[in-house]
Amino acid sequence: MAQATEWRFTTRLPQNFHPKSLRQLLMADWYLPKHLVFSLKRGERVLVNGQYLPVNFDVHPGDQIMLKFLATDFEHPYSNVTPDSAATVSVLYEDANLLVVNKTQGSKTHPNQPGEVGTTLNHVAAYLASKDQQPYVINRLDQETSGALLIAKNPAVVPVLVRLVKEKLIKRTYLTWVHGRLNSTQGIIAMPIGLNVTDKRKRQVNGEHPQMAITRFKVMDRNPDATLVAVHLQTGRTHQIRVHFASLGHPIVGDPLYANDPRQQRLLLHSWQLRLPLPFSFKHVMLTASLPETFHRFEQRYFN
């Protein structure tokens, strides 16, 4: 597969755009890191209406902005993920820069070893191979967690998307069934999470090297033995949803680490909705990932 050596982006500023410096547009509105803005400036690879413009000059409604990135702008311009079968790839959204897939339960997000196959990123690599594109992982879901997973298609949008994730500008809602009946209809769980010193696979509230973790939830449905909860993460700690609800005495149904369920009961945690600002634009998309069959089977036991 031929590897691209440059990536171009062209955007026309909307009519309701408030004039500001080109630097402010690139860094404050489009979340480009300072070193990339410097590279664009040094190489005169940022054009306004077809002409180079110093970044301290203002841009205005209707102006056309063109950016050109080179492979040399990035420490790791190519992801080099080994393609695998694309049969399991379920695309929720795709444009020239990124795609969001509905990750299959039981699939790892990305390979951990060179040449490893069978992960979601390997499957997406096969899907993109015919387009001469490569996948770049932005965030991850636990192997048994299903649902909306964000993947970049070129190195230029990777730092933008990473910053959007870090600053919580990408809004993600999870759905999960937890054991027992939650009395509150909504609430906030604010408890630090650290390492579990007796089991390196696990985390625990107030464990070793704790970091504050904040989880917001809203009850969506109930049955006599379990509660369906919509969850928003204000922080992003490892196993945060799983640890927080387990600490309340309401572990997630099927959790192999924090619940005492039969092994055949799979984890009922799903990345359900994703609200995403699109890079180098002023648009947003709202996406919903359909629930896996494991959710439907669990619900049928109580509601049919």
TrEMBL record:
Keywords: Isomerase. Residues 97-247 form the Pseudouridine synthase RsuA/RluA-like domain. SUPFAM superfamilies: Pseudouridine synthase. Belongs to the pseudouridine synthase RluA family. It catalyses: a uridine in RNA = a pseudouridine in RNA. The keyword Transport does not apply. PROSITE patterns: PSI_RLU. The keyword Cytoplasm does not apply. Its EC number is 5.4.99.-. Pfam families: PseudoU_synth_2 (PF00849). This is Pseudouridine synthase. InterPro entries: PsdUridine_synth_cat_dom_sf, PsdUridine_synth_RluA-like_CS, PsdUridine_synth_RluC/D, PsdUridine_synth_RsuA/RluA, RluA_PseudoU_synthase. It comes from Secundilactobacillus angelensis. It is an enzyme of class 5 (isomerase). Responsible for synthesis of pseudouridine from uracil.
